[in-house]
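Regression report. Comparing outputs from two consecutive submissions.

Submission 1:
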Amino acid sequence: MKHRWVIRPAAEADIDDIALYIAKRNVEAGHRFLRHVFDDIEMLAANPGFGTRIPDSPLDLRRWRVKGFNAIAIIYRSTTGHVRVLRVLHGAQDWDRILERLTDGS
């Protein structure tokens, strides 16, 4: 059964920021990033267990590297019938601090 997907506002902002950053250097790459991130979200909705579980995550968070953009990962949580995209992060970001804020409700 395919899950519905929900993109949280912080993840929407992440996607927009990353796409703009990439597009400033290469417009086609910015468009390609957008296509791949949404294709990957659709794929995760159909296969929510495909992502790698993030160790010690109390929310059972998973990550999936965006096709063609291996430094960027979709951070998501699978719940009954839904895949919730919480953040889309670059590998250079402080994941520990960002994910900690997710678990404390910030």
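Submission 2:
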Amino acid sequence: MTAPKIRHLALFARDPQAVARYYQKVFDMKLVHTSPDGQHCFISDGYLTMALLKHTTAGSAPVGLNHFGFAVEDREEIARRIKELGMEAPTKRPSDRPFAEYRACDPEGNFFDISQHGFEMVETGTEREKRKVPA
């Protein structure tokens, strides 16, 4: 199995659009997705996708790093390894999320996403289900 790669980071930002414009201008990152409500931006350097999530005072997390994500070949093997270490099994992400299928956390409680689908293509779980052909 190929080693999993960090391919996704998420930051809470007071003004996600301004932060996206900054990374676009400074690092030539590309805007790859904006949430339907216009609150969240997703930018990429062609390898790593960064989610810029709208921060509000009603939220439970501070501005800054929210989570990161691993692209994996075998999600079930990764889940087995996590459970083997006595950690909570990864939980399925809502089907309207465009990238990761599962979420887990490290021993300190830092969230990370696990995606067999990958972070390159904007596609929700609902859209992935529609593409499946019945056996």
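Expected: both submissions complete independently.
Actual: both completed, but the second showed a warning that disappeared on reload.
Relevant detail on submission 2: The first helix runs from residue 16 to 27.
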